[in-house]
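quick one before i forget lol
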Amino acid sequence: MLKVSRYELILEVIKEKKNIKIEELIEKLNVSEATIRRDLTFLENSGKIRRVHGGAISIDTQEESILYKKEIYSEEKEKIGKFAASLVDRGSTIYLDAGTSVFAMIKYLAGIENIRVVTNGLSHIDELYSKKIETYLIGGKIKMLTGALVGGSAVLSIKNFNFDLAFMGANGIDINGYSTPDSEEALIKNEACTKANKTYFLCDESKLTKKSFVNFCNLEESYLITNAKEINENIKNKLKGLHIVN
């Protein structure tokens, strides 16, 4: 069983039962005790569960931490990020959202001449610096769970910029558009989309089955880059453009 599938199944079982013993998980997933203990440690460090003696209990969370997001669908995000970077021309000014799929494109931006990056992602800074990419970090309140700069001051900060392209993430996609669980993050995401000549959303297949609290961008205003093979026809028809990576 794939690692990401185990994580999802463990979370599903714990959410349903509220607590579970390690022995039950070993039997249910048919893996070793060492594997289960590693999985539980990772999920606890990601803020998804709390370890207790002999098992684990659920924690109510509305959004995954950046540690968890980087781990799941990592290969798919890598392919999406590589394709997204191929759309950037030399001399472009681009906005990079704080999402992990967007983070995956940074390594592929190295070598594109004279590009400028504006971002609200604290977790992006070291990678952008190491690639010697001219970077502007907007101001705002730090969202501890994901390392994003959000809120009204972030929106005021981003109003000073204009972008050739914006590369965005989302927690969910449905016929009504892209959504996030955080209303303060929705503000900065929406503003970034309006400041760009073209907006690309980088979303792995899991996002097309989710719907979050606040919608911040319409499908008609965006291009979607995804690895999803099956996409609702109504969503397809609304998009400005669609790129499916293998």
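fyi The two ends are 21 Å apart (CA to CA).
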